[in-house]
Structure formats: structure tokens, C-alpha cells
């Protein structure tokens, strides 16, 4: 097997043991798969954790206690070499939902006793057969809304449990054509170049049409929502987002890669911007805020057709002075 296939095997082996392990074995599973200096990044309130045992104690054990009978329902799986470090490191991406029975509180979110879906996407850096680094991003507000909470004002796009790719071909367990992988990465880079710092100068829908299919789908996080077609994406997210910020920094990624017709990236943070008022129905603060983001893309021909995006909105709004999780704990629910 080539290096990418070997890396995929490391991750699939971990998932097989981790997902089926009793809670008392979770730490052992992670220790066996990870390097001694394993570094884990997650959305607020977890942030950065060092060491497999700490990741098990801080994240996996509480989650497994709350979402019982947990299943990993994976929609996208691929590997690639990281363009950001000159294609030296190998990463494996996995995206889907962690589904379980919401039987006990998690982060103060009240249980429902019903099925619940935690949107997740993770990038794992594999080195010498071990996992050296993980970016595990997950949509906590989406879970809050399933529990009947409203962490944010009404969103501009649709709230729903999000499906995987329309083509049902996102699990790339087999080797892919390198030419297809390069075409996907080239298109993602063209989109990033067009995005820049929102200064291309074209009308928004014309700008988007350069790299996006007209019937594109943007699967956004809770608080913003999901939207379909360039026209509705521009109206329901892209334009309000751009109108609601100033002083957007350049884009910074820790990993950007592609395999076959799928690709993606993440940053820590991806960029910084200052809210001017209106975004997510919130007022201006004048405070620069970090956006920690994972984007996953599906390419169809020479255009981007679908985009799943994970944004750490809890972290962003905490920087603006609103601690959503703390407020949920402090304000009585009737």
C-alpha cells in the first residue's frame, strides 16, 4: 500500500477499536494509536489538549457517557498530503455524525432520551503509523437545538440534520487518481484566491460562479444554517457575512489537501475579522474575533458542488463577550 492508504488504515483501525470499546477501554485505545506528544484541537470549551489520556478523559468519556450506544455515521473519508507544509505531512479527514441516545447532560445541555446527532469533522496527521495530531471540530449549537434550546437568534438559512454527498461516493477507502486529486486542490485554491479579503471587485454572484456550481449546496453550522444555489447562498449567508464584518485578515490554514473529488482544509484560526453588526442578528462589538473553521468540498467537473463547513461559533462569540454555554447554565429554562 502507498503512504495514503497506510494512513487510512491507521485511522480506520482506530475507529474500529474506539467506537466499539467499552468506556473503560477508551484511554487504552487512544494510547495505542497516538504518539506520546499527541496534540488535539477541538472547539470551545475543549480547545487544545495534549496527550491521549487527557483527550479520553476530557472529551471522549464525557461524550460517551451522555450519548449512549454511540455510532459513527461517516459520510466523507479521504487522505492527502498537506499543501501547507510543501506536501510533507499526511493527513486523513473524516466527516459525518456521531449519533447516540442523549441520555445524560453534556456541557450542561439537557438530555432528551432520544436520538441525537453531533456533526463532526476531524483531520488526523499520521506519522510513522501513529496519530500525531488531530483537529476534531463539532457543532455543539446544532446539538443544543436538537435538545430544544435556541443558543442564537433566528438563523438566515435552514436548520436540519445534514446528509452526506448527493453522489454517495464520499468514503474513499480505495486509491484515487492523482490527476483528479490535483484538479480538486487547484479548484479549492482558486476559490480561496477569489475569496481573498473580499476585495475581488466583482458582483458577489459573479464571483461565486467562477468556482461554484449554480446548484451548489452550502451545509453550514447551526446559527447560520444550510443553503442551496448560488443565489440563495449569496442572500442567506455570503452577503450577510461579508456585510457584518470588517478588517478581515488573510486566510491561514494548518492543512489543505485533496483526494479524488474531495478536499478540504482547517485553520487555528483560519482568519480574524471584526463584527460591524448584523451577523447572526448580533450587534457590533469592535472586537476582532477568531474563526476556527473546517471546510470539506465535493467537486463536480470544474466547479465546487457541495461544501460542509464547521465554525467554532461558541469560541467566536465568547471572544465578543457572550459565553453561550455559561448563559445556558445561568438562565433558567421554563
TrEMBL record:
It holds the Pfam family SnoaL. InterPro entries: Cyclase_SnoaL-like, NTF2-like_dom_sf. This is SnoaL-like polyketide cyclase. The lineage of its organism: Bacteria, Pseudomonadati, Pseudomonadota, Alphaproteobacteria, Rhodobacterales. It comes from the Bacteria. GO terms for biological process: polyketide metabolic process. It comes from Aliiruegeria haliotis.
